[in-house]
Design a protein that fits this description.
The chain has one domain: Sandwich (Jelly Rolls), CATH 2.60.120. 43% of the residues lie in helices and 27% in strands. The protein has five helices and eight strands. The strands form two sheets. The protein has a four-stranded antiparallel sheet with strand order 1-8-3-6. Strands 2-7-4-5 form a four-stranded antiparallel sheet, with no helix packed on it. The mean pLDDT is 84.
Length: 152
């Protein structure tokens, strides 16, 4: 894939859609394209985050084990990022990511992403906005789920 195409793919990610194209070109150049087959683990819960992944194609299952043994599951689809929250918060991975289908992703190293964020105040704002929306959606989903379980 050409660098120009990877820049366009990055533009589809909410975090990056308002970032200067020159900065996206640097990010695309510094990232590594990686492939996974169904069942491959991309990262495991508890791992130290060293990179985030931009999902170009395929589907990924995200699972988290709790002390009581229950697993919460969600799926990531193309044009989403995996593992960015832990990377930005400097915390261990909160979930395990496993490829459900053939997956193509861009692996962006921690230092590269943090450098881009520090050099681009607009991106800091966009990350905050997208993280707030993600948390709002997840909390709303949990509320619905607890309501349904209470009915049962």
């Amino acid at each position: 894939m050409l660098l120009r195409e990877e820049v366009e793919l990055l533009r589809n990610i909410p975090y990056f859609n308002r970032v200067d194209p020159c900065k996206l070109k640097l990010l695309a150049f510094a990232s590594h394209r990686i492939s996974y087959e169904p069942g491959d683990m991309i990262f495991a819960q508890g791992d130290v985050p060293e990179a985030t992944f931009v999902l170009l194609s395929g589907n990924v299952r995200l699972t988290a084990s709790s002390p009581c043994g229950r697993c919460e599951t969600t799926q990531a689809e193309p044009n989403s990022m995996l593992g960015e929250m832990c990377l930005l918060s400097d915390q261990p991975r909160a979930m395990t990511a496993t490829a459900l289908t053939n997956v193509e992703a861009l692996k962006i190293g921690r230092d590269c992403l943090l450098r881009l964020v520090s050099d681009n105040p607009r991106m800091s704002f966009e990350i905050s906005r997208v993280l707030a929306e993600t948390l709002r959606d997840r909390i709303g989903g949990l509320g619905k789920r607890f309501s349904q379980e209470a009915i049962l």
